[in-house]
Each structure stands twice: as C-alpha cells, then as structure tokens.
Amino acid sequence: MSRQPLVSRRTLLRGMGALMALPLLEGMRPGVARGAPAPAPRRFAVFYTPCGIHMPKWTPTGVGPTWSLTPTLASLAPVKDDVLVLSGLDNLPGKPDGDGHHAAATSAFLSCVKALKTQGANIRTGISMDQVMANALGKATRFPSLELGIDQGKGIGNCDSGYACPYANNIAWAGPSTPVPKETTPRAAFERLFADFDPDATQAELAKRRAYGLSIIDAVRGDAKALEGRLGTTDRRKLDEYFTGVRELELRVNAMEGAGPACGAVAAPVDTMDVREKTKAMMDLIVLAFQCDLTRTCTFMLGNARSERVYSFLGLSGEHHAYSHHQKAQANYDALAKIDKWEVEQYAYLLQRMKGVQEGESTLLDNSAVYFSSEVADGNMHEHKNLPILLAGRAGGALSPGRHVQYGDVPLANLYISLLNMFGVPVSTFGDGTGPLTGLAG
Amino acid sequence: MGLGLAVLLLAGCDASLPWARVLPGPEAPNPGNGPVDPLDTLCRSESRDPGRVTLHRLNRAEYDNTVRDLLGDTSAPARDFPPDDHGFGFDNNADVLSMSPLLMEKYSHAAEQLVETAWANGTLRTCELDAAAPEACARTLLRTFARRAWRRPVSEQEVASLVGFVALARQHGDAPEVGVKLALRSVLVSPHFLFRVELDPVSASKAPHPISDLELASRLSYFLWSSMPDEALLAAAEGGRLRDPAVLEAQVRRMLADPKARALVDNFAGQWLYTRALDFSQPEARYGFDEPLRQAMREETKLLFQEFIIGDHRLKDLLDAPFTYVNDRLATHYGLPPVGTDAMTRVSLEGHPERAGLFGKGALLTVTANADRTSPVKRGVWVLEQLLCKGPPPPPPNAGGLAPAVDPTLNIKERMRQHRADPTCAGCHTLMDPLGFGLENFDPVGRWRVKEEGGAAVDSSGELPGGKVFNGVVEMRAVVKQDPDLSACMTRHLLSYALGRGAESADRCNVHDISQQAESQGGRLTDYILAIVRSDAFQQRGGEAEGPTP
A166: part of which helix (H) or strand (E)? Predict the structure, then answer.
C-alpha cells in the first residue's frame, strides 16, 4: 500500500546482496509484549519432501533416548538432542483410488483426508492442520501463515493419474476445495514480508493510506456482492475464495505500520534457479518470518509431488521419481540415499539456524515444532504406512526431543491432534485420527 | 476418440482391443480415410451439451497480456505471482485456477504499481482534471477505462461509485488525481477485472443458453490472444454483430493475423507440445546441451507452430512438415548444412526426411527423454496422449523406470522386452513402447544416432498391436498421421484450451463435429479454430441445477 517507499526499498533490494537495516524496536520483539514480558510465542513449520524416503538408511535401530544417527540422518548430529524420530505412523487416507499415490498422499499430507479423484470442478480433500492452526493463531501476526516452495511446476501434461494438479502441488488447504498456493521465488516472498512498512511515514500519512486502502476494499467487495446473486453454485465457490482474499487484504491494510519488524539487518535474497541456493534462501526466510514474528505457521515444499528433479550436483543423472521406483536395484537405493541425505541436510540447516536465534532464555527452536516428512515411505511400493517423520524443537516445553519413538499402526492424524493441542487449538478429532498421540512429552 | 479413450481407461490398455480402433492396420477397409467411426452414428442422434465453464480467473499469462493491452505496461507483473495450477494439460483451466489471499495481495500491489506507472506516462490522462470541478473529466476517464478493463459497458451507477473516490480524496485534502488513481486501482482489483464473468439468465434452468455477445468477445480474445478484446472486437460485440457468421469469421481471421496471436504459440502449443518443459530439462553434461541450444530449440518449435497459425498448412502436416527453422548451432546439432547465421532461418528439409515434422524437433525429443538416456516409454506416451488421446493409465505399483543398463551390448529394445513379457505391463507397453522405438535414432537431446551409447546398434523398428510393422521415424509418423483419432485428439486439446475447461467424454460429439467440420474445410489450424468458435460449446453455456438466486 505504501507505494513510494516500497519502490525505493525494492530498488535498494535489487542490488546483489543488499543489506537492509530494519529499525530495532524493543517493544516489537517477539516474546516481549509491550509492557510486561510474556512467554515467547510457539511456532510451527512443515518441511515436505516428495517421492518418499529409502527407509533402510533412515530408521534408527535404537529406541528411546539411546538411538544413533543413521547415514541419512547424519547431518542432524549438531541438533540430535532437539529431534524426535517418530516411526510407525500411517496416513491411510493418502491411498488413492487406483493410481495417483503421490497426488493423493500429498493432498492428504496435512489433511489426513482422502482426496476425491477428479481433474475438474469438484476438487475435494480436507482443511490442512497448518491452516486449522493458522485460523486459531493467525490473528496475532501479520500473516496467518506462510506457504513456501521450490517448484513452479512445468505446467504440462497430467499431474498424477487422474488427480488434479492442485492435489499434487499443495499441502496447505484453507478448506476442502481451496488450496493455499505457495511463493516459489525467495525475492517475491521477501518483498511480501516487508512490503507494507514505511519508516518515513507520519501517523497521519499512515492513517490516510489505511483509509484509502480500505476504501478500495469496500468498493471491490461491493462489486463482488452485486455479482454473487447472479452466479451459479460453482462460480459462487470461486467468488467465495475472492471474498476470503479481500478479507485478508483488509486485515493487512488495517495492520499497515510505519516501522518494520525488529529483526536486525537482513540480506534480501537474490532469485536463482539453483535449487541449493533457493532452498537455503527459503530456510532463511522461514527463520526471518518467525524471528520477526510475522507469522507463526509456515509450510515448505522442497518439490511438488512426483518430483522429476535431477540432482546433478549430487552426481546423479536420473530423475528423483524414477529412482524412487527402485525395483530393488542397489544403484537406485544408493541414489535415493544420496537424495534423502541432502534433503535432511536442508532440514538440519533450518534447525541450526533456528537454534542460533536467542529468544530470552531459550532459542527459536526451543519455541517451535518443526515437522519433516514425505507423502509416502517407500516410493516403489507407494507405502502409506510407517512414514518417515522427524519432529524437532521443544514447542515451548510441550515436546521432549532427543528420542526415537516407535509406534505401530497409529494414524498420523493423531500426531496432528497433539500438535494442534500443543499450540492451543483444542481439537479432539482431525482427519482419521482417534485421539492425541502419546509419548511426545517424554 | 472419446470412446477409444474411455475404453482404454476402463480396460487399462487391453491389448485385445479391436485393433482398427487403436491404429489402422494394413487391412483397414478404407485406408485413406481410416475405418468407419462409430461416433458417426452415435452423434447423429445424441444431443449436445455445451458444458459450463467455471468463473475464470485470469492466469498469469492472461494477466500480463491484459495489462499490456490495457495500459501498455510490459513489465509482466505476474512473474511474481504464485504459479497457476494446470488441468487437462493447460494452465487456463478455470476449475483449477483458484483465488487466494496471497494472490489478492499480489493483485493489490500490482494494481498500485500499474496505475502509478501508467499515470506518470500520461497513458490514462485523456482529459484535464480541473481542480475545482474534476468530476466531468473523472467520469469520462473512468468510464472509458472500466469499460476496457471489465470488457463490457459500465453502468451509470458503477461509474458514479468510481467517481466517488475523487470526493474521498478531497475529504483527505488530496488533489482529484489521487482519487482517480484510487478508482483506477479498484477497477484492477475488482472481480470484474480479475475474473472473466459469464452471467446466467435470471431464470434458473438447466437448459443451455447463448452467452452474451460481450462474453463471446472475451472468450474469443482469451482463446486467440490470451488477452482482453480490443476496440474492434468490443465494438462488434456491443453493436450486436458478433454472431453474424461473416463478422465472426472476419474477426477470427483478423485476430489470428495480429501479432498477439503469438499467445497461441506460447500458451497453447507450449503446453500441448510440451515445449514449456524445455526450460526445466537438464540433460547430462556429456550431451553438450547449453543455453544457446535450449533457446534455439525453443524458437524452432515456436516458429514452426507460428507458420501453422496463419499459413496454409494442414494441421496434420505438423507431423511431417518438410521445413524447419535453425541457426548455425541447431543446424550443426541436427547434422544439417549451416545457415551462416545465429538467427533462426527457415530451411527446407527435402534431403533430411528424418528431421521433418514434430518428431524431428530437438525440443520435443529432449523433454521426452531422461537426463541420461532416451525413454521410448515417455516418447510413446507423449504420442499417445497428445496426438491420439489414448493416454495409458500409469504403471502399477512396483513398476518403475528402467534400471541403468546392465548389459550394454543389448540395445534398449532388448532390455525393454521385459515390459511385454510381464502380462501386467504388456497391455500398455505393447502400445507405448513401439512408438517410442520409432524415435530411437534420436539421442536424449535429439541428435541423430545409429548406435546407442553402450555401442549397440539402434533398432528403430516397431510392431503395433494388430501386426502393423514400421521401421524408423519416417514410417512411424506416417502411421500416426493416418490414425483416425488424430484429428479428434487435436480438436480435444484445442477445445480444452479454447474453453478453459477439460473436454471430457460428454463432449465427444462436440469434438466429433468440430473435427469433421475442420477437416472438411481444409484441415488448417484456422479451420479448427473457426469450427470451435462456431460450436455450441464455445457460444453457449449449460445451466446449473441450482441456479442463481435473484
């Protein structure tokens, strides 16, 4: 909304590695409410990786606090005591009708609801747990939730065997038929995070900008309302999404502020095609968004479902999805293990960055739960049971990490029920869940 | 086509299908025209449902083109929007184009930026905003702009509410232009701009109804230009002349001759022919694939298709067109004589029949290969899905990509025998693999080869269900070109794109009519486009059971 300053800031940020010094205001520090000190807020992040995991090199042998890092998990060494490995959780709603495992399981990844097999107008899965959380916690921050990812998608062909592309490309769902799209360029995501701040504006100027912004919102909402009565059911569903967008925009305009958040000096990311740099930039953005308390819920997709990424920098020439159909060939196992290891390294980087952010007596990681998983376990069989799951951080004391916990035939949704409860959302059911998951608090 | 596909999906590539419906064999009763199509009879009696296009949000390409034509802004602001999903092979599928808070934010910021830039350039200042009495000019200016942006005349009430922003600015002590700019921004964030609105008649009914002339104008312009109607089209629609067949045809021909029709190359062909995926191809370093080569391949396919938009070629000739466009780099890559320039140059392929048509194009051959080896399956599936609409179901669990060569003396065809030996695989692979084998003389980046990398001689012969045998790409593409389903399949893809909704089995007779009409008119891309534009599917809209409430 604040146009001129935004332009100049954008110009500034275009420079390679430009450093932006944001004003540091004690009163805006997360965890330090204006006036009295309050506990730091809890944050939740999701790290999705496609095509499953080669489980023999993933699963630790020991159970409880005595587990040892496996080859795939080796990079977690510096944060081993901050991580829970959870084995034996199943997401059976991810099973498709016939084929389409990757898309079906990806749309069920955080919803634990079976997707309706369709390519068309009647897309239906369930609201995802991060969005349930965002609905409950989101009002406290500028952004109820943040959705990030790496892949734009090639935009050709079928996505997965008769399952519409939104199922394959989104883990965050605001409602059963409303995917929440993700930002796939770090620079655009960064600009969005800091777009509405104008440190030079006076209070009067800000008030006027708010009034103008709100007047536009009133006008277009009026347009949409006039239209609503003249549309059929399917069209009205699209218009409902528009109304939701307008409502969120209104919140954003109302929250328009002068000074930026208190995050110190921040380097703006530069757009790149290199997946290594791009992933690192996205990890940094998650830390930044949490550190500045711009959001408390964030999901990240390292790739879209059925990813055909070629990991040439790992010395691999085949596509990820092709390797995942390993046919029990050792060469494919080896390739998968390399890819998995790299994926966990990115997650480990995120955890270490979060552990490096001090929040009073604790760290950002202590105040967070950071979830890592894939839509399936073994990619060859499209296994929806015994999923590869990591959960890091202490969630402000609700989690007791540093252990390998072995479950058996327990719905993944139970973990989500527990996580939601931990974050103050009092649900007792979710997806196919039967109740909270025991054993997370130690 | 519709039947063939439905059967295949149900049967899962049952190899016992009557072969004549799969591919024509030597005993086909009427080899020139293919066997009698059972749809001929069916569609004589079956009624046509025009279907219903969902409220269509502009996708990123449409947004960028629209602001280009509306404001002269070529900054492509949608580059920073989140990616659009695609459905039925195209990212203009209204059902999967959802709206979201993130997008609303992007629209809001883009609108502000666009209006400021356009205002600074003077593009929109068609009259002088008098500081004391700005309303008259504001009214003119906003009515003109909103009519173009919303692609329809605006009501007095709508104009009045836009002009209200001038008073709001005055209340805050700002000049009239501040208010006008706010109004312009609201026009660009309004659902009337962001969506292509098609209203139902007030009486709720399931019966199909003709869409309005203005809605038809938008369908036309977004089909052919991925952009808003221009003044000539809008004027024809407002004057009620657009449904006059001569006017409609003249408009289509005029629009196709306009450079804006390049959108068909980027958005239709780019997705139909998979050219867009070339941006993401990462062939192994040993193939010497680099950015100039990528660029040349992309341009080649675009220029080839471009000729089909206005040229006199039959659409089916895409499969064996005896010309192409190369620069020195691409010519060398293909083993053609150099053209003496870095610029893409049209060359005849008279002496190089293997390069003729789509199957000799580096872009297609690269995107349908693995990074380190060819994939007869991917290439075969592409032919089946994109040209014949006989896409096979995906492999069963536990099936997978071919393991790296264990015995390099065996060629890929030998190694793939396993597909056809295993009965769970054979049904589909007897269809997919041979078509891909026909392209085995092209390496993973489309270079001609007679030996595989392991040293084995390439075997590009194939046998299709029914016993039809071919040897090499030239014979393979002749088989595909003669397939009776080719025309209907091309129609099906083009119709899905034209409407922004998937052409499904309920559309089989629509597709059948269009393809027959197009072929009878000469079979050019223009004939297909005109047949689509004249169809009920394009000009009408089905009702919905639960209609609008008054």
Answer: helix A165-169
Q: How far apart are CA B405 and CA B383, in angstroms?
A: 25
Give the closest of A227, A317, A322 to B191, CB-based.
A227
Asked if A99 and A167 touch (Cβ cutoff 8 Å), the reply is no
The alpha carbon of residue B158 is apart from the nearest alpha carbon of chain A, in Å, by: 9
Distance of CA B269 to the CA centre of its chain: 5
Cβ-based contacts of B98 with chain A (< 8 Å)? 166, 178-179, 181, 238, 241
Q: Which amino acid is at A401?
A: P
Region of residue B86 (left: phi > 0; alpha: psi -120 to 50; beta: else) = beta
Task: Work out whether strand B345-348 and strand A358-359 pair parallel, antiparallel, or are unpaired.
Answer: unpaired
Q: Residue A67, SS3?
A: coil
- Contact residues for A408 (Cβ-Cβ < 8 A; gap 6+): A88
Does B103 sit within 8 Å of A181, measured CB to CB?
Answer: yes
For residues B110 and B64, is the Cβ–Cβ distance under 8 A? no
For helices B245-257 and B525-534, the axis angle rounded to 10 degrees is 140
Q: Where are the domains of chain A?
A: 40-155+166-190+266-422
Which chain A residues are within 8 Å of B547, Cβ to Cβ? 232
Residues of B within 8 A of A164 (CB-CB) are 85, 87, 95-96
Q: What are phi and psi of B530, to 5 degrees?
A: -65, -40
CA-nearest of B450, B479, B449 to B462 is B479
DSSP state of B402: P
> B191 vs A147: CB contact, 8 Å cut-off?
no
Q: What tens digit of pLDDT does each residue of B42-76 get?
A: 888 877 889 999 999 999 999 999 999 999 999 99
Query: Does the beta-carbon distance from A239 to B550 stay under 8 Å?
Result: no
Per-residue pLDDT for chain A (442 aa), expressed as one digit of tens each?
333 333 233 333 333 233 343 433 333 344 444 455 678 999 999 999 999 999 999 999 999 999 999 999 999 999 999 999 999 999 999 999 988 999 999 999 999 999 999 987 789 999 999 999 999 998 889 899 999 999 988 778 888 888 999 999 999 999 999 999 999 999 999 988 887 778 888 999 999 999 999 999 999 999 999 999 888 888 999 999 999 999 999 988 888 777 667 665 577 888 888 999 999 999 999 999 999 999 999 999 999 999 999 999 999 988 999 999 998 999 999 999 999 999 999 999 999 999 999 999 999 999 999 999 999 999 999 999 999 999 999 999 999 999 999 999 999 999 999 999 999 999 999 999 999 999 999 7
Nearest chain A residue (CA) to B286: A317
Show residues of chain B in contact with A208, CB under 8 Å.
Answer: 172, 174
Query: Which of B161, B276, B370 faces A318 most closely, judged by CB atoms?
Result: B370
Q: Which residue of A has its CA nearest to B370?
A: A318
Q: What share of chain B is helix, strand, coil (3-state, %, to 5)?
A: 55, 5, 40
Q: What's the CA angle centered on A379, arms A384 and A401, to 5 degrees?
A: 60
Query: Between A and B, how many residue pairs show a Cβ–Cβ distance under 8 A?
Result: 241
**For residue A310, what is the DSSP state?**
B
Residue B469: its H or E element: strand B469-471
Burial (CB count within 10 angstroms: exposed 0-12, middle 13-18, buried 19+), residue B195 = buried
Contacts of A222 in chain B (CB under 8 A): 161
Strand boundaries in A284-428, DSSP class E: 297-301, 358-359, 362-363, 368-374, 389-392, 403-411
Radius of gyration of chain B (CA): 26
Say how far apart CA B385 and CA B500 lie, in whole Å: 18
Q: What are A118's two structure tokens?
A: 């369709």
Architecture of domain A40-155+166-190+266-422: 3-Layer(aba) Sandwich (3.40)
pTM for the predicted model, two decimal places: 0.91
